[in-house]
Amino acid sequence: MTRRRIKNCFVLVVACLVLAWPASASPPIKNIVLVHGAFVDGSGWQPVYDNLVQDGYRVTLVQEPLTSLEEDVAAVRRILDRQDSPCILVAHSYGGTVITEAGTHPKVAALVYIAAHAPDEGETEAGNGKKFPNSSQPLVRTPDGFLFLDPANFAKDFAADLPATQAEFMAHAQMPTAAKVFTTLITNPAWKLKPSWYMVAKADRTINPDLERMYAERAHSHKVEAEGASHAVYISHPKEVAALIEDAAQQAAPR
Questions:
Q1: Fold topology of 27-251
Q2: Of 38, 50, 217, 224, which residue is most buried, by most CB within 10 angstroms?
C-alpha cells in the first residue's frame, strides 16, 4: 500500500469516528455553585457537595449575608465572576429568589431550584406565600427588623426528616434574616432566560409544595418530587439532589 493510500485511509477512519461520535458525548458542565436559603448558612450543603465532588465536579458555596436581596445577589455574582467556565447555579428556599435575580449572569448555563422560591417580575416571596399558605408557625421578629424561626418549632417546620440532634443544633445556629428580603420585588427573572430544574419537597411545611409545583410548571422546569421530604430536603436527600444537579450539568452542556 502506498504512503498516499495509507494517509487517505487514515483520514477516512478519523472522519467516520467524528461522524459516529454521539451528540450526547459533549462533556458535562463541571462547575457548580450552591446558594443557601434564609436562616441557615452554606454548611448544610456539605452532603450534596461531597456527592458532587466525588463525581468529579468543582463546587463552590456562596455565603450570603442575608441582610438584603441586593447584597445577597451581589454575594452570588461575586462567586460567579470567579468561575473559569459555565456553571450550574443551584439554590434552596429563599436562595431561589436570589438566583432568580443573579442567574442572568453570563457564566450561568442553567438553574436548579431545591424547594425554592422562583418569583416572576414584580412578585415577592412573601406575596406568593400568601397565595399558597404554608403550614409552619409564625416567624419571630427582632426589634431591628430581622426574622428567625422559634427554636421550639424549628425541627417540625424546617427539618422534620433530620435526626433530632441535628435539627436541634440547626435551630440554635440560625442566621437571622432581614425581613425586607421577603418583600423585595423581582425585576428580571433568570428562569425566563435559562433552562431550569426543580425539586419539590412533598412534606415541606415552610414552602407550600403546591407553590413549589407552580414555580416549576411556570418556568417549564425539569421537575422531580422528593417523597416525604421536609424543607431541609437538600440535607436529608443529598444523593437525589446531587443527581438532579448532575442531570442539569449533563443536559445544559453545550452541544
A1: Rossmann fold (3.40.50)
A2: 38
Residue in 114, 64, 61 with CA at minimum distance from that of residue 238: 114
> Cα separation of 111 and 195, whole Å?
6
Cell numbers describing residue 27: 462533556
Residue with cell 445556629: 173
**Apex 214 CA angle, 139 and 151, nearest 5:** 20
Q: Which amino acid is at 93?
A: S
Classify residue 6 as exposed, middle or buried by CB count within 10 Å of its CB (0-12, 13-18, 19+). Answer: exposed
SS3 1: coil
Indicate the domain borders of the chain: 27-251
Q: Please, how many CA atoms are within 13 Å of residue 200, restricted to the half-sphere of its CB?
A: 18
CA atoms within 13 A on the CB side of 165: 0
Contact 57, 32 (CB under 8 A): yes
Taking only the tens of pLDDT, the chain with its 255 residues reads 455 554 444 434 334 433 333 444 567 899 999 999 999 999 999 999 999 999 999 999 999 999 999 999 999 999 999 999 999 999 999 999 999 999 999 999 999 999 999 999 999 999 999 999 999 999 999 999 999 999 999 999 999 999 999 999 999 999 999 999 999 999 999 999 999 999 999 999 999 999 999 999 999 999 999 999 999 999 999 999 999 999 999 999 775
For the chain, give the number of residues.
Answer: 255
Q: What is the dihedral of CA 23, 26, 28, 30, to 10 degrees?
A: -160
DSSP 175: B
